[in-house]
Amino acid sequence: MGEIADWSSGGTPRRTEESYYGGDIPWAVIGDLNDEVVSQCKGSITHEGLSNSSCKIVRPGTILIAMYGSIGKLGIAGMPMATNQAIASAVPRISSQYLFYFLLAQRSQLAEAGKGATQRNISQTILKAWPIPVAPPMEQDRIVAVIEEHFSRLDAVQSTLEGGLRSVAAFRRSLLTDAFKVNGTLPHNWQRTEIEEVAKVQLGRQRSPQHHAGPQMRPYLRAANVTWAGLSLDDVKQMNFDEGDFETYRLWPGDLLLNEASGSPNEVGKPALWNGEIENCCFQNTLLRLQARDINPAYLYWYCYMAALTGRFGEAGRGVNIRHLGKQGLARFPIPVAPKVEQERIVTGLEEKFQQSSDCEAAIRQAHERVHALRRSILTRAFDGQLVARSTDDEPAMVLTD
Description:
The protein is an alpha+beta fold and about 400 residues long. The protein has ten helices and 22 strands. The strands form seven sheets. A five-stranded mixed beta sheet has the order 1-9-6-7-3, covered by helices on one side. A four-stranded mixed beta sheet has the order 4-2-8-5. It has a four-stranded antiparallel beta sheet with strand order 11-20-16-18.
C-alpha cells in the first residue's frame, strides 16, 4: 500500500499546556472513527498546539485508520483536521473509496498482524508493506459502485432488523407493565404494599483485604454474575467466610439476587434467581438478596425484572453518577400483590410470552449475522476480482503506481 498512497500519522500536543487545546482545529482520535466520513471530532487543538507537536493537518478525503487497540477502525476526513499518533493517514493515488473498502475487507487480518501484550498495535511500516490488488481505474469505480449498491440494500435490511429488536424490547416492557398494572388502577382484590412486607431484604458482605485469604475460602457471587439472561457463573470469585458469616450470607435455592448499584438507571436492581448451582456459595455487597415469604418467588422475580428494566429501581436509587438502590431503598419499594392464583397465572403468562419474544429476538440476531456475513462476502469477492466484469477497454492499473 506504500506504492499507492502517501502515509503519515499525527501527534498529541503536551497535555500540560492548556493553551494547546480547545482551539478551532478539529483533532481526531480513534473514538472519532466509525467507518464513515468524519464530520466532527470530540476534541480540538489550537494553532499553537499544532506547531508545537507532531500533529499535521490532513485534507478532506484523506483515509484514516486506527493503528492501536481497535486496529482497522476507519474514517474519511470530511474537513481539514489533525489526528493523534494512533491514527495513520493515507492520501491515495487510487480511488479513495476503493482503498477504504479494501481496508475494511482487511480489518481482521490487520488486527491479527498487531503486536503488543496490553494494547496491540500495527505500524506504518506494516501498512506500507501490506499487499493490495489494484484494479484498473475504471474497474475500481465499478467495484465501488457495486459495493455501495449492495451495502445500501443491506443497510435497509439492517435498519429493519434493528427496528425489530426495538419492537421486541417495547413488547417486553409492555407485557411487564400490563401484568403488574403499573399504569392503571389495581383490581379490588389486589394489595399494594412494600417489598419488605413480602420478602426478607439483605445486603451481601463487603469485600475487604482481610477476607482475601483464609482457612475457609468459599465461592461468592457479585454484580458481574447477574445478567438479564440469568446468572453467569463462568467467573466466580472466592473469599474467606468463617462459620458465622457463612450462615449469614449463604445462598439458598429460591433466593432472588439483585444488582445493588449501576451507572445506568436501567441496570439498577437487575435480578436473577439462585437455584443452588454452586454448593456453599455466598454473596457480596454489590448484590441484594430477597427471600420470599408469603409471595410466589417467580412473581417477585418478574416484578423486580419490570422495575429494573423500566428504570424504576434506578429512579428510586441514591447517587449521581452511580445509582445505589440500597437495602432500605429496596425494602421500602412498593409492590402490587395479586391473589395467589393470579400470581401463578401472571408468572405462566410472562414466561410463555418472554420465551416467544426470545425466539423472535434470536431469529433477528441470526439475520443480523447473515447481513454481516454478506458484507464480508461482498468485500472478499470485490478484491478477488469476482464482483464486477472486466473490460478490455480499461486502462492498465500500473499507471497508478508509475
